[in-house]
Amino acid sequence: MEYVNVTTSDEPSPRRAKTTIKARGDPGTLLTAAMVGESALALLFGQLAPHAAGGGILTPMTAFGDHLIRRLEANERFEITSGIVDSSDEEVEESRKTR
After folding, report:
1. How many CA atoms lie within 13 A of 49 on its CB side?
2. 23-38 as b/e, with b when 16 or more CB fall inside 10 Å?
3. What angle separates helix 66-74 from helix 30-44, to the nearest 10 degrees?
4. What is the DSSP letter of 50?
5. Contact at 8 Å (CB) between 46 and 5?
6. Strands lying side by side in the sheet with 2-8
7. For residue range 72-87, what is the model confidence (pLDDT) as tens digits?
8. Does residue 42 lie within any of the structural domains?
9. Which of 38, 93, 96, 97 has its CA 20 to 30 A from that of 28?
10. How many domains does the chain have?
């Protein structure tokens, strides 16, 4: 499975960031269980992102940030890459999923 997300900033001179998540396994069962388990372990070991300390209703990525990325990559089922996309690069569809 591959998921690509391109986000554009709302700055006066907009920048685009592209994140690609590649994963091996069934997304409905195996990968969901791996993500839930790694998020639970991040919570158990107190690996909240600094801006999440106030609590509230947060997505796992907002709550755990880079800690969750490192945990998922250590799981070896996930490969996550992110970077700034140059405006001269070819257009990339936002939020597209492939299998």
Report:
1. 17
2. beeeeeeebeebbeeb
3. 130
4. G
5. no
6. 78-85, 16-23, 2-8, 96-98
7. 999 989 999 999 998 6
8. yes
9. 93
10. 1
Question: Is 59:35 a contact under the CB 8 Å cutoff?
Answer: no
Q: How far is CA 44 from the centre of its chain?
A: 20
Placement of tokens 């300390």 in the chain: 53
Q: With CA atoms as reference, report the closest residue to 24 among 65, 61, 73, 59.
A: 73
5-57 residue pLDDT tens: 898 889 898 999 999 999 999 989 999 999 999 999 998 998 888 888 787 88
pTM for this prediction? 0.73
Residue 9 falls inside a structural domain: yes
68 in a structural domain: yes
The counts of H helices and E strands in the chain are 3, 4
